[in-house]
Amino acid sequence: MTEIKRPGALYQQVAAAIRDAILSGEFAPGAPLPSEAQLIERYKVSRPTVRNAVAALRAEGLVNVQHGKGSFVRTSGLPPVTVERRISRSGSAGPFVTHDGITWEQPDEPKIYRTETTAITGPPLGLGEGEALFGCDRLLTDPATGTRALHRTLIPFATAEDTELAQAPDTEPAAIYELLTKAGHKLWWTETVQARMPLPDERDALQIPDATPVLHTTRTTHGTNDQPLILEDLRISAERAQLAYRITAEKPPAARRARA
């Protein structure tokens, strides 16, 4: 047992001692931590010190606190699911296919709404703030692992007007690509990925523990003259998922010659 020495921040010392016990396997993944009374006796410290130590470990993601049940050593659970981010098409006129690598289920109906661009969603669409959009939110679940994902599609009114999307903004992404192609666009995509801490509603919807980051992908579909057409984002637990990309070599863009 690690000896707690004074002076120094006692709760940090207790947290370090519990952390060592977790990493050594003394406190196994998924197992309950000793009770507050047991930790007080083990480390000869006060109840507030124990609570602060457990709170610190919770913030680190080593411990989950279940109200009414106690504190448990966090377990990584099932291996992460692999989400393929490729888009393919069979021939020049074949249907588009997205390769998530997962047969997602949708436990709820998609939520359709009208919204406006913000300082975050406007730039990828080449729009300022306050421009009208159709929005569609989906909750996706992987039946094999229970992993959840949140998918959002944002469609500018200008894009929807030229297609059937104004009447059906809940169209699936691959079918949206098909509609845009039929409208005369030659499509290409850009995508960014960031890891961040979830908002409270995201954490609840994704059913992920405290101190777990999410992977947030943002995909922009571009059309004729590189015009941004729609914006999609996907949010999923960084602990439960990994993203896979197929990367092919491209010719570098031709350098522009300076005019004399």
TrEMBL record:
UniProtKB keywords: DNA-binding, Transcription, Transcription regulation
Pfam family, one: GntR
Record carries keyword Transcription: yes
Gene3D superfamilies per the UniProt record, alphabetical: Chorismate lyase-like, Winged helix-like DNA-binding domain superfamily/Winged helix DNA-binding domain
SUPFAM superfamilies in the cross-refs: Chorismate lyase-like, Winged helix' DNA-binding domain
Lineage: Bacteria, Bacillati, Actinomycetota, Actinomycetes, Kitasatosporales
InterPro entries (UniProt xref): Bact_HTH_transcr_reg (IPR050679), Chorismate_lyase_/UTRA_dom_sf (IPR028978), Tscrpt_reg_HTH_GntR (IPR000524), UTRA (IPR011663), WH-like_DNA-bd_sf (IPR036388), WH_DNA-bd_sf (IPR036390)
Domain of life: Bacteria
Entry protein name: GntR family transcriptional regulator
Keyword Transcription applies: yes
CDD domains, alphabetized: WHTH_GntR
Residue ranges of every copy of the HTH gntR-type domain listed in the record: 8-76
Biological process terms in GO annotation: negative regulation of DNA-templated transcription
Molecular function as annotated in GO: DNA binding; DNA-binding transcription factor activity
